[in-house]
Write a structure and sequence with these properties.
alpha+beta, Aminopeptidase
Length: 239
């Protein structure tokens, strides 16, 4: 598989997962995701998959987000011309989203609990604590309940203090929403979820496990220790 094919398949995985958490408008040259109930989040409120520069689409996205009183984030994949245009439009570089993958061999089984609709609040409580977004509880719980048949949500079995969402598309397993409650960090719960995901990759004969991490979160070294390697990045611009 070529590097371009890998990027295309990963971006399709990302978009399909995001579509469970946000509304999507598909333009000819890009895709626009938004969720007014998850404001100021650069992952769920974004113009992405920009297939060619279309100033009209960018202006439409700006207008739509302005009407919804949302902050627009534009994800740019290796396009200096588009970056220059956004800077001229008054956008600034907000962050960089690093895309990582691993094909490591799992180390035994991990003790995790798969979430069903009836215990969605457990996953939601952990997520909101891990990401310090308690005001999102009702919206996130609704999202989990509505998507639990399409996305696999897990918490660790022993502490019930960490969470993850796994999404399989294009023979790639996407690892999203990995988080641990502040008081339980540093005891290996994130590693446990990564290992569980690697078991799914192995058992399902999938190509690899991927995740995305914001540069500002300063987790590249942490994920490198878990066997992940960076394959590309997306610059995020906002106003």
């Amino acid at each position: 598989m070529s590097s371009d094919d890998i990027i295309t398949k990963i971006e399709e995985n990302d978009s399909a997962f995001t579509g469970n958490w946000a509304s999507v408008q598909n333009f000819d040259s890009a895709d626009l995701f938004s969720n007014p109930n998850l404001p100021n989040d650069p992952f769920f409120n974004k113009l992405t998959n920009i297939r060619r520069i279309s100033y009209k689409v960018i202006d439409q996205a700006i207008s739509i987000f302005k009407d919804q009183r949302l902050r627009l984030f534009i994800h740019v994949l290796d396009d200096p011309k588009l970056e220059d245009y956004l800077l001229e439009k008054g956008f600034s570089h907000h962050d960089t989203l690093h895309v990582l993958k691993t094909t490591n061999t799992p180390s035994g089984k991990s003790l995790v609990k798969k979430i069903s609709m009836k215990d969605s609040k457990l996953w939601t409580e952990i997520f909101c604590s891990a990401y310090d977004c308690h005001d999102w509880f009702d919206e996130v719980n609704k999202i989990v309940q509505n998507s639990v048949s399409k996305v696999d949500y897990f918490v660790d079995s022993e502490e019930e203090a960490s969470c993850v969402a796994l999404y399989d598309r294009n023979s790639i397993l996407g690892l999203y929403c990995l988080g641990t409650k502040p008081g339980k960090r540093g005891i290996g719960l994130a590693r446990l979820h990564v290992n569980h995901a690697l078991n799914i990759v192995k058992e399902g004969d999938l190509n690899f496990l991927m995740l995305e991490t914001f540069h500002k979160d300063n987790l590249l070294d942490f994920y490198a220790k878990l066997g992940f390697e960076k394959i590309y990045e997306k610059k995020i611009f906002t106003v």
